[in-house]
Design a protein that fits this description.
This protein has eight helices and 15 strands. A hairpin with a 2-residue loop joins strand 3 and strand 4.
Length: 293
């Protein structure tokens, strides 16, 4: 099976990088790579206290780096108006409890992700049988227990709006996680995709480190529902985004990126779905987000 769609350098977007390593891709949008995962900042530089939004919170131990990057971009001590979680996997919530308490900020997520953010349910075990490299092989060691942000956790609005991000909409893009969401700004054709798609291979430690531009489906070892994942990719491809920021890999844009995304959507089973894996033929779909078979 084909497992990647290589992209040439023309798919990379123009970025300006500050001393903290934050990469700005639009006046009000930037991302920061922490180890092998990205966090995203929404808001104009100098926006000040409560004038910006943080999307996802990286891996454990990265709270200070996020605070420093936010201070450099928005002003020393500037707190976000909200934290938006695309989903609750360990590499996206590592600093969440620390930052939510430190900043006294609401945390928004799809209601189906709440069990993994309020301490009541764990994700299913990772599946190393998908193959692909060291990251997949080690995946049974990755944390899957929930975090607990208590009373700060709120459901994303039912009308599809995103708190403190005017003009943005959240889209339910399940498969990698039951309550996974992506964020979409139609006016600028900008997509923050979380892990619904990624732009570097996550099964191989080498690919995760080098980050050659590629178009992939969600990380295989933590994706329990491939049918829903394929539907989510087709939804995102139908948007025809001009700029994509994903949970893993470089921001990409332009015609070559769109072409690769459509190819992934049209041939999802052949390209993204592993030959092996316990969830391929028998997907895990918790009805309420809390109980897996």
């Amino acid at each position: 099976m084909v497992q990647q769609i290589p992209l040439d350098i023309t798919s990379r977007v123009d970025e300006t990088q500050d001393q903290q390593g934050t990469r700005q891709v639009a006046p009000d949008l930037a991302y920061l790579r922490l180890a092998f995962v990205n966090v995203v900042f929404h808001g104009l530089p100098g926006a000040g206290d409560r004038g910006w939004v943080l999307i996802d919170t990286g891996v454990t131990g990265m709270a200070e780096k996020i605070v420093a990057a936010a201070g450099a971009r928005f002003g020393e001590g500037a707190r976000p108006a909200a934290i938006i979680q695309t989903h609750g996997h360990f590499d996206h919530v590592g600093a969440l409890v620390d930052l939510a308490e430190r900043w006294d900020v609401p945390v928004y997520a799809h209601r189906l992700e709440h069990p993994y953010l309020n301490g009541t349910a764990s994700y299913p075990p990772a599946d190393p049988s998908v193959g692909g490299g060291l990251m997949a092989l080690l995946s049974p060691l990755y944390p899957r227990k929930p975090v607990d942000v208590g009373g700060r956790l709120l459901a994303l609005p039912e009308d599809g709006t995103v708190p403190a991000m005017p003009g943005w909409r959240w889209l339910h893009t399940p498969g990698h996680a039951p309550g996974h969401v992506s964020l979409w700004h139609a006016g600028s054709a900008t997509l923050v995709a979380g892990d619904a798609i990624v732009t570097t291979g996550q099964e191989s430690a080498y690919e995760a480190a080098v980050q050659e531009p590629e178009m992939h489906g969600p990380p295989q070892y933590f994706t329990p529902d491939w049918q829903s994942a394929g539907a989510s990719v087709r939804l995102l491809a139908g948007l025809d985004p001009g700029l994509v920021i994903t949970g893993h890999g470089r921001a990409l844009g332009g015609a070559k990126m769109r072409e690769a995304l459509h190819r992934l959507a049209d041939n999802f089973t052949e390209i993204a779905v592993p030959e092996g894996g316990r969830n391929v033929a028998d997907p895990a779909r918790p009805e309420d987000g809390s109980v897996y078979r």
